[in-house]
Amino acid sequence: MRICVVGDELGVGVGDARALGWTGRVLARTRFDRPAMSFVLAVPGETTSALGARWETETESRFGPEATCDNRLVVALGRHDIDAGLSVARSRLNLANILDVADNRRLATFVVGPPPGRAEDGDRIAELSAAFADVANRRRVPYVDTYTPLAQHEQWLADLATTGATYPGQAGYGLMAWLVLHTGWHAWLGLPNDAEAS
C-alpha cells in the first residue's frame, strides 16, 4: 500500500514539538497487514486551487503500478482559501475536481477538513468545512470534520493560544489524529474497525 497525503503545512505538523503532526500519529496507530509507504506532500500556504494544480504530478512518482500496488490518496484541506479570498463556490469546485480526477484514476480517496484557526475566521471555516463535507459526501468519499468537534474544545483552544492562534501543538494534533482514526480511517483501508484503535 502507498498513501500520499496532499495539503498544506498542517499535514507535516508545524508547531508540534514531537514533529509528528496528525499524520504521523495516525500512521503510528495503524497496523497494516504488510509494510506500507506513506508520503506527506505538503506546501505551506496552499489553497485548494494550488493543490488542484499540483497533486497529480506530485503523487504520480510515488504511486506504484495499479496491478501491484494499492494506491491511496488523502486530501488534507487547510484554511488558506479564506486568506486568499476564494469563494466557497470556488473551493467546492476545486475539491470536486480533485475527487473526480482521483475517481477517474481509480484512487481510493479520504478527505480531512480544515480545523479551527483564528477566532475571527470561525464562521468562514465552519462554512468551508460544511461545503467540503457536502462535496465529499456526494461522491461517497470519507470526510473528517475537524472543525465542529474542535471549535470549542478546551485543549485545542489552549494549544492555539500557546502557539499564536495559527497552529496547534502536541495536544491539538493528537485531537486531530483521534478524529481521523475514529471517522472511518480503518474501514477505508480495509483494516479492523476503528474501535480497535482506541
From TrEMBL:
Species in which this protein is naturally found: Isoptericola halotolerans
One Pfam family in the UniProt entry: Lipase_GDSL_2
Domain SGNH hydrolase-type esterase: residue ranges: 6-174
Protein name: GDSL-like lipase/acylhydrolase family protein
Organism lineage string: Bacteria, Bacillati, Actinomycetota, Actinomycetes, Micrococcales
